[in-house]
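[Solved] Which block belongs to which protein?

Original post:
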Amino acid sequence: MEKLSKAAIFAIVALVIVLIVIFKSSVVIEAGQAGVLFKPFGEGVEKDATYGEGFHIIAPWNDMIIFPVRQLSKSDKMRVLSVNGLEVTVDATVWYQPEYDRLPYLYQEKGINYEDNILEPAISAAARSVVGRYTPEQLYSSKRDVIQSEILEEARKELESQYVQVNRVLVKDVTLPPKIKEAIERKLKQEQEALEYEFRLTKASKEAERQKIDAEGKAVANQILSASLTDKILTEKGIEATLKLAESPNSKVIVVGGGENGGLPIILGNQ
């Protein structure tokens, strides 16, 4: 009985050890994640392999460091200076992800908190570099799309050898000092009013020119018509009109006038 008890205790201890080994040796990497294997009794970080999603068995003394590798986003409000030294606040969001195949190098050189160590400083440096090229008026009005593209380009340059891929940068807002913003809005309003006034003047000038051309055309037409209306033509037209009127049932008497050319007929009669 005593031997059975010792055997049972030994079996239980062995089972516990096996369970611990299995527990320590099994790793499940979830969807959108990847792992880097660290061997404390070997070469340290295993640089030749990035472990993908699924179930993995490793030696119980090794560690699997798991990173999210799907696209991530980070938002920040950065205070930067414009080209003339005025402080502006840029509210931006960056979409990024670690480079899958180089994940072991990212862990070894930058650590698990690589966002704080390299990503944020790179985005901040890119924003300072880009915003420093523009005036507050440009930042406030029409340069936001250009700023986004340039910050993205600068950030990629900063991170191209840092094992992090930047996919997109969105500038949600550019906040200027209140007095500068008010001055810019007044200036933009005045420019808009000036453009509207210039448009009205141009429209009025074009209308006056159109009326002038129309009047000149009518004058020329009248001159041509007057030159073509001889006495003979007028008499002929008058006779044609008289004949048409004579055909009317209300016409009673036709009097033919005298004169050198005979004059035009006159019709007398009741309605």
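(Second protein starts here: sequence line, then its structure tokens.)
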Amino acid sequence: MHIRTAVPLALAASTALAGSLLVSAPASAVTHRSGVHLGKIQYDSPGKDNRSNASLNAEWVEIHNNTTSKVQLKGYQLKDNNGYTFTFGSYNVSAGKTVKVHTGKAKVTSGHVYWNRGSYVWNNTGDKARLIKPTGKLVDSCSWTKSSNGTKNCH
């Protein structure tokens, strides 16, 4: 009588363990995306939203090149839910490197480009960033709802 009870319990336990392993596997696969993709997004710049250039530049989106060669981003677009669109000029992102697209104004430097806007793009209460190829094909997207720190990790 005890043997009949033990076998179904052992089978149920091993099935539950296998099920939990299967559930966790796809999550790890998502963190290792290949190609050009969205990384971390600072959608709510730290401090008070006073529209200063420093505050605007503290709002940014990372675009990561997870390939083994540089990628030319000319013509790529970054869009939000309200139709605000940033279009890359000629800009190479090296293999394994990241470029931040800041909302405000400044001179383009290695790893940093600027939207040159005087107002915020990303909604603190929820929005969706989209990275689109010059052909119009969606490369990646990342959405969020309000959180305590104003960042979203899209890796």
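Accepted answer:
You had them paired correctly. Confirming on the second one: Residues 1-31 have pLDDT under 50 and may be disordered.
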